[in-house]
Amino acid sequence: MSRARRARKIAQTAAFGGGVGAAGLGALGLAGYGLLRVEAVMARRIVGQPFEGAPDDEGIYGFGPGAPIRLVVLGDSTGAGMGAEHARQTIGATVANGVAAFSGRPVELTNVAAIGAESLHLGGQVERGLDRVPHPDIALILIGANDVTHRIERSLAVRHLEMTVRRLREAGAEVVVGTCPDLGAIQPLPQPLRYLARRWSRDLAAAQTVAVVEAGGRAVSIGDLLSEAFSAEPHVMFSQDQFHPSPAGYARVAAALLPTVSAALDLFGERSAPTQPSAWRGEGVGPVAVAASRAVANPGTEVAPAEVAGQARGAHGRWAMIRRRLRPTVAVPVADPVRTNDAERESAPAEPVPAGPTEEVSSG
């Protein structure tokens, strides 16, 4: 069965509330999880000790006129910033600084992500987030790794993610989801555990993409975004535990997410002047399950809802658009979050707004 068909099946099972066994893997997967338990002990001897927590990155980022753009981050330790040394180095802070620069407005970051969170915990996070920010402008979700390592049934995990996206959309928020990272890219994992981890995490990422698009959100594949860089410079891209990204690793992930977050907020005017997908960059419109499968193989790819001839669905399901968005041309500012009152913000000079993305396309 192809990955596209597996993704569609998992998403359909999630929609109808069914289940297909432990992690939806069948006999091969169950045997793999038995191996996982043995080899995980070996991996723990290689991977460093986990950190005590993550820095508090909440606050106001950037300056400019108008009310702050309200950004809420949900998810697991990646969203929380475990491995970052300072608040300004998290994905949320980096994205907030980038949005502030592109928009010329301040960004208010609220972070309810939690270390160790699984997709099942997103319901509680979204309630806490909406209690604090009833009508966020944009929500960023990073989830999936713990669903794989904790053997969570994939259709159950996907259903919780889809419900979270729908709840945030109902609250008026644009939603961007960074899908499950490719755990096979973690070098300390021995073979064949790495192969199994890669298959499980990629299948989950594809199914997440289908569910997110069905719920009206945008998915960005994280995949093995750090794999090549980790192999070349593991001491730079990963933190001291050899598992969580370092500040440089988080910056790489944030650079993949920032263009989609900016597009979701319509910072570049796409709603009034839509741009056509670029075939030479591998962009286009197709069934969401096929788009999800392609995105998993190409880290940094965005998959978003689309229409064909005014129709949202075709013979093979929901239409989706693949985008390979351009990355920022300069490093995103990394100043510490500035907490100011309204009078101070109005009197502060606005940050210059970058002209837009570069002309180069990263291969992820």
Counting DSSP E segments of at least 2 residues, the number of strands comes to 10
Could you say what the CATH architecture is?
A: 3-Layer(aba) Sandwich
Query: What is the 3D shape?
Result: globular
- Rg, nearest Å: 19 Å
Mean pLDDT: 79
Beta-strand proportion? 5-15%
Helix content: 40-55%
Measured between the Cα atoms of the first and last residue, the distance is 26 Å
- Helix and strand content put the structural class at alpha/beta
Q: What's the main sheet like?
A: 10 strands, mixed
Can you count the helices? Answer: 13
Full CATH superfamily name: SGNH hydrolase
Class, according to the CATH hierarchy? Alpha Beta
Low-confidence stretches: 14-28, 41-48, 329-364
Instruction: Using the coordinates shown, work out and report the CATH topology.
Output: Rossmann fold
Query: What is the total number of structural domains?
Result: 1
Region (Disordered): 333-364
Biased composition (Basic and acidic residues): 339-348
Transmembrane segments: 12-36
Domain SGNH hydrolase-type esterase: 73-252
